[in-house]
């Protein structure tokens, strides 16, 4: 599932393949921007901001958000109906597939699209003190909802939200006022994303072996790795939740 670490890794790959190259093809398959053609322009920068990705080309900025199912692929993959944009620079082809958001912005003003975000967990603006203050600003808010709010800190998705609640021993529905040390929680969040930013297979347990990478996410009915209690699951919530009924209170 795309989260801040996935987007950071995607941006790094696109940066390596595209920056400094001149586009020989630009095919935008979103009606509002279908007439935009950046062919002949050079790719200057690729950067991530939380779950957002920007490709700065000439006077424009290609802004995308992967949402739940999106991805960028580099290589001579077959292009099908899921492609939202195709960029080519000589023998390099980058395809944005099932992107939840794709828009072409004026480069000089592209950061306005992410001005609402909190500190970027993988960015130069990371500020743990501000993130901790944002997290507990509404004491009655459920922890999972606060973690998923990109205005609190940018980069957490549902996998990390569920895993962090387990690690700190709280139910996803518990209020943020129950967090004893908010600064420790946001600092651990940053450590986890930072450790996974270059990995293809994310791990929150520290074990990269297949089937051992996560504590609770996606493990409904399986035994808790700490106490053996079957992991509970709520698929009716706005975002799916997993927890251990014994380890989390």
TrEMBL record:
Keywords: DNA damage, DNA repair, DNA-binding, Endonuclease, Glycosidase, Hydrolase, Lyase, Metal-binding, Multifunctional enzyme, Nuclease, Zinc, Zinc-finger
Enzyme class, UniProt record, top EC level: lyase
Gene that this polypeptide is encoded by: nei2
Domain FPG-type: 215-249
Swiss-Prot/TrEMBL cofactor(s): Zn(2+)
Organism lineage: Bacteria, Bacillati, Actinomycetota, Actinomycetes, Mycobacteriales
Molecular function per GO: endonuclease activity
Family statement: Belongs to the FPG family.
Catalytic activity: 2'-deoxyribonucleotide-(2'-deoxyribose 5'-phosphate)-2'-deoxyribonucleotide-DNA = a 3'-end 2'-deoxyribonucleotide-(2,3-dehydro-2,3-deoxyribose 5'-phosphate)-DNA + a 5'-end 5'-phospho-2'-deoxyribonucleoside-DNA + H(+)
Top-rank taxon: Bacteria
Start and end residues of each Formamidopyrimidine-DNA glycosylase catalytic domain: 2-96
Record's signal peptide: none
EC number: 4.2.99.18
Protein's name in the database: DNA-(apurinic or apyrimidinic site) lyase
